[in-house]
Amino acid sequence: MAWMEDPRRGAPRLIWPDVRGVVVVAMNYGPGPPPADAAADGSRATISVYARGRDYHEVVKGKLKELADFLRSRAVGGDAKVFVDTAALMEKPLAQAAGLGWQGKHTNLVSRELGSWFFLGVILTDVELPRAAPHDDRCGTCRACLDACPTNAFPAPYRLDARRCVSYLTIELAGPIPRQFREAIGDRIYGCDDCLLACPWNRFAVAASEAKFAARAATTAPDLAGLAALDDATFRARFAGTAVKRIGRDRFARNVAIAIGNSGRADLIGATSRLLDDPSPLVRGAAVWAAARLMSAPAFAALAGARTGRERDADVRDEWAAEGFA
Predict the structure, then answer these.
(1) What's the predicted TM-score (pTM) here?
(2) Shared-domain flag, residues 279 and 180
C-alpha cells in the first residue's frame, strides 16, 4: 500500500489501496561539459542546471504515462498511476531499492552511469512485478559534496538541513531569505548545484539525449539588470514552460535582488533603486539589503532618510532597521 500525508490535517491517508508493484524511473538531464555559470564580473546570475530547459514535471510525466500504458497493455485488468513530485512518496529510497543508485552523503541519488544529473519518477501499479536488487553505497570516505556546500547545510553525512539549503531558500521559501545566508547565496537565483558538481561520480555522467532538457538562452547566465526589470507579465513570458516560472515573479525578484547585492557592481545601483519601489514588500526588503551593499555609506544614508518614513510594511521596515535606519 502507498500512503501520503494529508496536508489539511497532517494525518496519513491512502494514495491507492491496491499497490502491488512500484516502478522507479531515472531520466538523465546531464549538461555534458561543465555547465555555463554566471560571468566572473558579477553582472550575471546562475540558475540550476535542472531548470534551464523544459519543466521536468511535464517531460517526465509524459514518459511515465507511456510506460504506464505499456504496463496496462501487458496485464489484463491492470492499472497504474504516475507521480513526478506530485505525492509524498519517498522517491530516493525507492530508487535505491530498485537498484538505480544510492543516496549519497548529499542525500541526492547517485548513479554509476549518470552521476547525479537525473530526475526520478514513480509508477504505482496493481500488477505484481519482479523485485530488483538494491544498490549499495559507493561514497566511501569522500566528503567533497559536504565541503562544497556554501551554507553548510549538511550537519552530518546523509543528513540535510533544508532550512540552510540554497535550493530551499531560493525556491521553496516564501518569505525573506534569512540574512545569515544571503552572502553565501552569491549569484544563485534559482537552486544550487554545488554538491552535485563536487561529486566525483559525475565524471561518468553523459549529456542528456532529451532535447527538451537543453538549456535555453533565457536561463543560461542571465543578465541581472535585465532580470531586475521584469514585471509579472514579462517574467511569465520569459520563463514560460520552465520550472523557474513555478516560484512566481516576486520570489524570483527577491532572489535577483540578493544576487545584485552580492555582485559588487555599482552600475547595478539603478536596478536596485527600481526594486525599492516594487509593489511587493518581499522584493523591497531584499532591495534594501542589496542597496546597503552597493552604495556608499553617505548615499545609503540619504536614501534611507528619503524612504524609511513612508515605508508601511513591517518586514521592510525591519530591513531598514537592520541596516541602522529605523
Answers:
(1) 0.91
(2) no
